[in-house]
Amino acid sequence: MPEGHSVHRIARQFDRNFVGRPLAASSPQGRFAEGAELISGRAATSVRAVGKQMFLEFDDDLWLRVHLGLYGAWDFAGEILVDPTIAAANGRMGQTNQRGTDLGAEPILDAAGENSLSSIGAPRRARGRVRMSEQTTGLQEELEWPPPVVGQVRLRLLTDVTCADLRGPTACVLQTPDEVAATIAKLGPDPLVDGTEAGEERFVAAVRRRATAIGLLLMDQSVVSGIGNVYRAELLFRARLNPHTPGRDVPEELVRGLWRDWARLLTIGVDIGQMMTMDDLDPDAYRRAMASRDDRHWVYHRAGLPCRVCGTEIVVEEAAGRNLYWCPSCQR
């Protein structure tokens, strides 16, 4: 499932390439035909991401809400104006790791496409080609315009030079301002929306009053927004916290530490386009981690492998229908 960093990156792409422009909208798949007809020809006026959901505002107080869910993704094609705050993810403006080591300008690409500027969401091979228009030498060949529809496209948004195709979302609906406000009110704090201090207090209060296991609370979007299976496992390991500990039994300072670590990892994820959860990597290790998920995480997807810290076998179990990875020694 795309986690919060991906949705913030998508929102930045929309802000850079679609906001302020009238859009032609269609639903090639047909499942959003009425909604597409309502927004087609309108100007996009703003965009925001909260957790795993994106809200695109149109004139006349009409909002498009998109929740990618497990399988959704946005595919971009055409001339993409690269947002400087996320351009480094494509390697075109240089890579910098968490310690500030300059890794040069060569791209470091993930085969799953997570850091691609042409497809953001559930990992898949990008269906479109992108002709980037600044800060890069990118793909320059002539493209068919508009690009042909491939697969089940729920919604296509077009400017004169840029195309965004939405596939496989859990939600793609139009909302009024009041409905948007009600949706957001049900979501937990997001460090990039609520700020770190105010968000921290909301998060601490929500966790400390519940008997639910912390491993479940971190996945509850009403408790905290944007955390999915990967970040959940990694945050708990980094805190050396047993995922079965009831929220109310987790020491307050440890809860605050979880929030602050989430704010840090989310910012890194938005900046580089990867769920990078290992610190203090030398340049070679960082390049390997950027290129492969297997070298990027402490415990996620490492069931049966030795813990990177203590050597104990990493276990995986089902928690609320999702796989939970953890080290039974480090996270006693």
UniProtKB/TrEMBL annotation:
Domain Formamidopyrimidine-DNA glycosylase catalytic: from-to ranges: 2-81
Gene3D superfamilies, sorted: 1.10.8.50, MutM-like, N-terminal (3.20.190.10)
Domain FPG-type intervals: 298-332
Reaction equation(s) it catalyzes: 2'-deoxyribonucleotide-(2'-deoxyribose 5'-phosphate)-2'-deoxyribonucleotide-DNA = a 3'-end 2'-deoxyribonucleotide-(2,3-dehydro-2,3-deoxyribose 5'-phosphate)-DNA + a 5'-end 5'-phospho-2'-deoxyribonucleoside-DNA + H(+)
Cofactor(s) the protein needs: Zn(2+)
Enzyme nomenclature, EC number: 4.2.99.18
GO biological process, one term: base-excision repair
GO MF terms, alphabetically ordered: class I DNA-(apurinic or apyrimidinic site) endonuclease activity; damaged DNA binding; oxidized pyrimidine nucleobase lesion DNA N-glycosylase activity; zinc ion binding
UniProt keywords, alphabetically: DNA damage, DNA repair, DNA-binding, Glycosidase, Hydrolase, Lyase, Metal-binding, Multifunctional enzyme, Zinc, Zinc-finger
PROSITE patterns given in the database record: FPG_CAT, ZF_FPG_1, ZF_FPG_2
Protein name: DNA-(apurinic or apyrimidinic site) lyase
